[in-house]
Amino acid sequence: MKIRLTALFILVLSHITLHAQEFEYELGEVTKEELAQESHPIDKDAPAAILFSKAETYMVYSERDGFDLITEVDMKIKIYNKDGYDWANKSIRFYDPGSNREEVDVSKAYTYNLEDGSIKRTKLKKEGKFTEDVNKYWKREKIVMPDVKEGSIIEYRYKIKSPHISSFPEWRFQEGIPVDHSKYVTKIPEYFTYTPNFRGYHMPKVTQGKANRSISSTSKQRRENQTTTFSTSKIDYIEAITTYEFENLPAMKEEAFVNNIDNYTASIEHEITMIKYPNSPLKSFSATWEDVAKSIYDNDDFGNELKKTGYFEEDVDALLSGLNTPEEKINALYYYVRDNMNWNDYYGYSCQEGVRKAYKEKVGNIADINLMLTSMLRYVGLEANPVLVTTRSSKIALYPNRDAFNYVIAAVQLNNKTILLDATSKSAMPNILPIRAVNWLGRLIKKGGISNEVTLLPTTPSIESISLMATLDTEGKLTGQLKDQYYDYNAYTFRERYNGLSEQSHIEKIEKKYNGITVENYEIANANIFGKPIEERYEFIHTNANIDVIGDKMYISPMLFLTQSENPFKQEKREYPIDFIYPRQDRYMISITLPEGYTVESVPQAVSLAMEQNIGSFNYNVIVNNNRIMLRAMLELNYASIPQDFYPTVKDFFQKMIEKQTEKIIITKNK
């Protein structure tokens, strides 16, 4: 958004003091001690660390362009080892649709190394800086720092000039490596009101101040004698200065079962809420999610596309001939669109090609395909509506705005239930969305733009059921058969992972997963029959199945090569939810026939573990029947997402489950 002042209030800055603030940390102040440091003093395993990051966002005004938003950034990074080399490269995304474009300028970019007791400084080379297109609206300015080695320090400064004062830049205090010091300063004239919104679980030290600024208003007057005179009047205004500061922020480390970690990383975003110039009416920008949804629905590339039906009516009438129930119609239309349309890999809630052209050419973006499906469902009398979604790869918005969403699916109300549909994935089904769209809440929009929230998280467990029958010989070798059945989201992920692969590729993946196994007579059923579980069957020989032969005894892990031996939860504490994506139920039925001449000495005791709040459970039982050992085990996780408050509970649960799985059956050779 570009703001220019009216003739009532033409501003020219009499003196610009909105330069970058003086910080206690400055570029160029690199010491031998810093270069000689071999590891981070707090996080010894860190591959790199940000010694300081600082930025300032302020506004400048010109008569020709109006207000611009300027952000200046300084960055100083220490590289400890080769795993940190990526931190010597920087990518700066900026908006460039052709007009009202942003500008990026990189300066003071150097690499420092300690060589023969002296500090060597290497400047960023011309070929180390380049611009690349992201799409037709966005570009990236990229730099690749020179002469980077273990122990290097790199630093750079860049400035972004933007005409869009409503789009304050996000500032990230926290990163995937330690941050020793981070500071962000905003300087905002009193005519603008922004609301700061914080992300993450750390809060910055905040200091506020004010500065008096002077602005000159220049006007001209043409006299009767054709001469022009200029007059200048001085206007004083107050600038609000806010500083946000952190010291010693820990690295934001990825761990198992995390959604988009950027949702929980300490950062700040600013929402413009009001502009009030002297002698001008107040302009409010506050909006609700309902306002946002209605504005999207009223867009020609959204609501108008839903109204178009002529291009498909004849085909749909023929398709549904003889079908009577709503369920039959939903399934027929869904699979018709899913199987005939092809997604072009572009996200968006606005149509790219338009539904008519997309239908004809059988290709389109997310909106082209799913708005088309919504329109067809409405055409046959079903209560269908689009649902705006934020994909898992995008951050959840902190305040209402149109950019909060980047995806749209369809929903049908039937028998007081909501059926969610996404026809852009060949592996999906009704109520089985592509994983990219399974992200907390969506916003369902009805005709006229009325909207409400709808949950996208699955509530029904997806089952994986494994049956294994094996015979053990005296050398510890197993031969047997395995059947693995995948239901619902487990079937979806299987199809996404394996569809299009040859049988040999399937076998190779199994043999890689279960080191030591040889797979024979592989079969797969229902891979393309939706609504039935996918079923894998194969025979196997395994020479490394968690079985140890020591003298006359054999030590056997009852779950054999299916044993989970490592806890996926390693951190002492966790500051973001545990995201299982969907509830799940893993069932195991294992039968092991013992070699002749052996007797069971001991088996693990049965166990039943349960977490609080019905989060999940694990049941495990081993029984002996003559020369056969039989195990039944079941893991249940009842929620798609679990708050971080329960992390100690979940971590402890998994640890106890793994300890039980790794307990041994002991069998002894008869004498």
From TrEMBL:
A Pfam entry, by short name: DUF3857
InterPro entries in UniProt: DUF3857, Papain-like_cys_pep_sf, Transglutaminase-like
Boundaries of every Transglutaminase-like domain copy: 320-394
SUPFAM superfamilies named among the record's database cross-references: Cysteine proteinases
Keyword Signal attached: yes
Keywords: Signal
Signal as UniProt keyword: yes
Residue stretches making up the DUF3857 domain: 74-208
Bias (Polar residues): 209-219
Signal peptide (residue range): 1-20
Domain of life: Bacteria
Stretches the record annotates as Disordered: 209-228
Record protein name field: DUF3857 domain-containing protein
